[in-house]
Amino acid sequence: MPADLAVIGLGPLGLPLAQAATAARLPTVGYDPDPHTVAELRAGRLPAEGGDGSLTAAGIRRMLSAGFRPTTEDAELGKVRTAVICAPTRLGEDHALDLGAVRDAARTLAVRLRPHTTVLLESAVHPGTTEDFVRPLLEAGSGLRAGRDFHLAYSPSRFDPANRRHGFANTPKVIGGLTAACTEAAAAFYGRFCEKVVRARGVREAETVKVLETNYRHVNIALVNEMAVFCHDIGVDLWDVVRCAETKPFGFQAFRPGPGVGGHGVPIDPAYLSYRRSSPGHPLRMVELAQEVNGRMPRYVIQRCATLLNEHGKSARGARVLLLGVGYKADVADQEGSPAREIASRLMEMGAQLSYHDPYVGQWRVLGQPVPRADCLYEAAADADLTVLLQPHRTYDLQGLAVKAQLLLDTRGASPAGAAHRL
Hints:
This protein is of the alpha/beta class. It is built from twelve helices and 17 strands. The strands form four sheets. It has an eight-stranded mixed beta sheet with strand order 3-2-1-4-7-8-9-10, sandwiched between helices. Strands 12-11-15-16-17 form a five-stranded parallel beta sheet, sandwiched between helices. A two-stranded antiparallel ribbon has the order 5-6. The protein is globular and about 70 Å long.
């Protein structure tokens, strides 16, 4: 059966889109150049270990039964009416987004692109990327012209793993096309399985929505992370401060501190345009500062660990330390940008005897070494000199954990008040 949709990139962006489209009975093919990813999906398994409740191995099997076809064959891309590029983008050492996977996806699609196809980009990118980077690749490889021979638009991904209230269907979908016709083609596609479609004025406006949403998160987390350090220093319970502040019905949205910020929504500074020789020259200074503040949090967690151990007559060297939750957020296995790795690395370098527990991660390596996984959580907490809660998975009984642990550092403020040391 010919597919209506090709999802290019079967990772954290592409798979949820493919799942939503398949559930809406859109014939969908998923393209990924990685044979291992495709083989795992064809076998009804997630490419990455674990899941988040909304995307599981059982869910993959339901998608396959509904006609979803994972493939490494790019010829399939020439048989669809809509193609969505969901390639990953990450920050490089120069703080610029690495658009290599987007470039490869666009070039692969371009060779197979047919007239009247709607092409959409969902990857996190700088404003201007769709027009100035993706469009030339598609036009050069296909001989077609965007806006005339095929539709081109951008739509920021808003999928939130493990969110039980907001899924793909009931989260408004922002779109912005190269032309008015491109916008309407994108709206017609997303309208088939999204309850609400929001039209941006154009492609760059839609791209900048992603910049604003992602940076809003990082800047506000940085603020509350700084408040956490400040409040600890002056002996104030930040968690009680946040609890009270969030009762204000206007002008305030509660954010909570943590050991660092991970995930695929990286902070984006348009001053770093990797595909141009020159940048606009107007860096987002608050974004740069937020990256600096959030990047310090793993080191602050280590400092708190060492202090707590010292206060109880123990040294970090030789101490048994148990880390709970190594994904980048609660109830997911995805470790993209997770602060757990840096925290574990520093503890190992200090000579700590490290172990971990995570119901979603069966194996974990740090500094090239396997970290022992605790089979029985509460026995491990009772045996450890220090237990550090990094992610409050729903499966954790935090009251029971606080009772069992010799010493508990809660970096998320999820434990009952007074039951643990909080960040």
